[in-house]
Structure prediction request, 210 residues.
Amino acid sequence: MAPQAPEYTGAVASEPETPIDEEDEAQPDPEREARRLVALAQIRQYPDPVLRMRAREVEAFDEELAQLVHRMTQLMAGADGAGLAATQVGVLRRVFVMRKDDNGATMALVNPKLVGRGDELEIDDEGCLSLQGLLLPVERPVAVTVKAKDPGGADVELELEGFAARAFQHELDHLDGVLILDRTTDEARREAMARLRQRSAPRGTTGARL
Ligand SMILES: [Zn+2]
Prediction:
């Protein structure tokens, strides 16, 4: 079994490098780790076919949606993730939650659309809560303009850059059944697939899911 990356943080792994929580990283808190595993157990893992399905537009901005957003926000936080799409919890609705920055502020976007992108592209490593332990290089536009609704149904228009732009694009991909495996280099994909195959191979491996 390949070990998990020690500093795995979810959808967006590397940027920005803020030296906060040094204590946490130096000595992992067993309670926090237990919470993380409980949250991860509720998040669909590759190759669950739901991760390949396209989510449908949200039509009702109701209590059910609010509850879904609440649950997803809790799960993302519990799993130490930077973003979580509804498809990852088995709900085929176009909604995701993501961190706006490294300070922990989160937002929920419903029926999100990418309406503009800058010319500059950047390659950075991305992780995914549905592909635990993998970090794959993905090239994406550095800046994007997006439109969405908030969970109350109000229009949202945002200019996102860097971390937030990457997180948005990663989560939007989830709503279309696209994973970082599809966006990375051929070489990284081959390596990742080999690791994934190893992981789902015969019983007795740690982390087996039933
Ligand atoms: Zn993901």
Summary: The domain at 30-200 is CATH 3.90.45.10 (Peptide Deformylase).
